[in-house]
Amino acid sequence: DSITVAELAKRMGEKAADLVKSLFNMGMMVTVNQTVDQDTAELLVNEFGHKVQRVSESDVDIDTSEDVDPEDTLKSRPPVVTIMGHVDHGKTSLLDAIRGADVAAGEAGGITQHIGAYQVTPKGGDPITFLDTPGHEAFTEMRARGANVTDIVILVVAADDGLKPQTIEAINHTKAANVPMIVAINKIDKDGANPQKVREELLQHEVIVEAMSGDVQDVEVSAKKKTNIDKLLEAINLQAELLELKANPDRAADATVVEAKLDKGRGPVATVLIQRGTLKVGDTFVAGPAAGKVRALVDDHGRRVKEAGPSFPVEVLGLSALPSAGDPFTVVENEARAREVADYRQRKLDEQRTTAAPMSLENMFAKKGAQTIQFPMIIKADVQGTAEAINAAVNKISTEEIEVRVLHSGVGAITESDVTLAASTGAPIIGFNVRPNAKAREVANREQVEFRYYDVIYHLTDWVKEAMAGELGPEI
Ligand code: GDP
Hints:
The structure is a single chain. With about 475 residues, the protein is α/β, with parallel strands linked by helices. About 35% of the residues lie in helices and about 25% in strands. The chain contains 16 helices and 24 strands. Helix 9 (about 195-205) links the parallel strand 8 (about 180-185) and strand 9 (about 220). Helix 7 (about 135-145) runs parallel beside helix 8 (about 165-175), helix 13 runs parallel beside helix 16 (about 455-470) and helix 14 runs parallel beside helix 15 (about 440-445).
């Protein structure tokens, strides 16, 4: 854990320049915006004659991992579904077609609102919640932040196009997340449609559908003609039943932010998905670095609701600031507590932003949770095929303890935006037969971002393995 000199000075009530001088006398060249570690901070505090009071993270932040609901409080809840697949295979069309199949909407009225998630109740079936942002980027991003909200993945494959790179990526992400999959073979209305070929191609990626004697459900659909949408929803209901999804609705709400935006008239608005408990108007909460009190709850039909239970998506009004997708949203006992946690998280974010400590292998491994250490990196290559190959190669090195995470990969010179991403995440930038442009180099110098250049993939993977071994000790 570390703190910027400026922040430390503020908390000690001393001048930052005096701290810098003192550090200099200890042999450390540090500017006010750079960070020092806890031991150094303690030394400084003593040096200035103050008392050290270490506040552990768990004293300030909320940790719900130990707070498990007793079995007898659990009630069944709707599944949360994410749609993935290759671009143009029909993800958006399918989301629209499914939304149109909601029977509850017609009865209650209201206009469809895109709030980031919606719930449908199919005719004769049970409610299902869909995340409205298709694609695996959102899915992986949320997961990376520890938000595992998806219970079931619908993999859309166009029957006239078959498996494509993003289909395969979606399969890999789904498998990595251990989330069950249902295959929607789309565009069966088209002339060149060949559903059987899709099934065979899936086989090559170890997705064995029921029609091929496997246990992955597959449904032939046409999002355009709205064919078999009911069958797809039935398949989801069936899968959900097998999963026996449950949550305790009678407690303070724990939710996850799925979308957040600054609304002109309403201020910061976040769509949250309730994971357990019931969120009510008037509840005090923390959402990432934002705090607030629920002023109003709005559902996916633009209707005001008084409360929202497990798996229910609602827009929350009454936030002090904007959280990010994937941030935990937790109801707390009072405003003082909400403020304390939100301030603490905001401070941590500010520190991360202002940290200009030289990039070292230690701080490259951003620690996440107790078990997994993340090894982030950004990859730029000269051609798409190479970028994909590198991606696959480094991902394969991930172990139980360390997860290699490619934050971004692309083609072309290393740009300023790559460097900004690197600076904010502590990731090195890997240039494969490419170099940074002048602007990127300039920003990188200032932010002390590390570049590594390669032209042979295994040289790169060797380095990654070495770095990982260094982090974990010799047992790897
Ligand atoms: P996304 O990129 O995966 O979200 O795909 P879209 O939903 O935007 O669909 C891409 C294109 O395929 C659009 O022009 C859709 O009209 C078309 N499309 C989607 N589903 C079907 C379908 O079932 N049949 C036909 N013929 N076209 C479809």
